[in-house]
Amino acid sequence: MSVTLKRRFSVDEVVNTVSTMRKIKTYAVIGGTSGMGLGLAQRLVERGDRVLIGGRNAGRLEAAARKLGPLATARSVDIEDRASLTTFFAGQEELAGLFTPGTTYRTASFREADAETAESPFRAKFWGQYWAVHTALPYFARDAAIVLMSGAASVRPAGNPAYSACNAAIEGLARALAVELRPIRVNCLSLGPIDSNLWRNRDASIREPVFDSWRALALTGEVGTVDDAAGAALFLLDNGNMNGSTIYSDGGYTMR
Ligand SMILES: NC(=O)c1ccc[n+]([C@@H]2O[C@H](COP(=O)([O-])OP(=O)(O)OC[C@H]3O[C@@H](n4cnc5c(N)ncnc54)[C@H](OP(=O)(O)O)[C@@H]3O)[C@@H](O)[C@H]2O)c1
Predict the structure, then answer these.
(1) 255 pLDDT more than 50
(2) Domains and CATH numbers, the chain
(3) How far does the centroid of ligand 1 lie from the alpha carbon of residue 100, in Å?
(4) What is the pLDDT of residues 50-80, one digit of tens each?
(5) pLDDT above 70: percentage of residues in the chain
(6) Closest ligand 1 atom to 125 CA
(7) Angle CA(99)–CA(201)–CA(159) in degrees, nearest 5?
(8) I need a surface site. Which of 32, 76, 149, 162 has the fewest CB within 10 A?
(9) How far apart are CA 44 and CA 62, in angstroms?
């Protein structure tokens, strides 16, 4: 007669058992509650890694944590606020990687932008990511990988000069950090238009004409997906020979 003993295993027991077979890593994603950040976090937990996700809105943090399951930890953070970055990373176990798509900024033309608007992309997207990496520095593993977020406006300006310059500066920052932080790898993901919540939350009467104009410009005739963006970020985290590079995941949008 055979007897089968059944008992529930805690997440930590399962993680500890699996980690004896494959080293489980932990990644931080600021902006991990929506769009491409959540898409990357989903891929990481699906392969058995842990994620620390951050964002400003408590409801979105809770919903994302529920969706990602027990391998995810969600903490509040505003990438523009250095004190909140310190709290976000405090006590964190060793990080194998960091992805920082979580920023909010305004754009306007050179003639129309007031100082607040003109400086907004640098304040939020450039300095936000700069200080996020700086704050996370003590927690990185020796072979960690960082993926910064820029955008196609770096090489294909669309009339918001401060925003274009900000994206180009972020791509330069990735190169400079790759040199200074080695052997930590630092790369940059530059996206063309992506059909994410950023656009889904806007009225179709605003979104669809913009998407149509982008489809006309992309060599693929398509707007990219969150999955495209998450896959490109994962590649930059994983590929040990990518360093100081910028990937343009844009369907050829920057070539027209
Ligand atoms: N979608 C595109 O077409 C596109 C193209 C090129 C580049 N990008 C870049 O990719 C980034 C992410 O885009 P997405 O389409 O994934 O947007 P999304 O779906 O709106 O997600 C943005 C994420 O960032 C978080 N976030 C926003 N501001 C933050 C802040 N100050 N501090 C911390 N977290 C913050 C949001 O949560 P909370 O709001 O709760 O904080 C959310 O988790 C954009 O900011 C942009 O720089 C997007």
Answers:
(1) yes
(2) 23-199+225-249 (3.40.50.720)
(3) 9
(4) 999 999 999 999 999 999 999 999 999 999 9
(5) 92
(6) 47
(7) 75
(8) 76
(9) 18
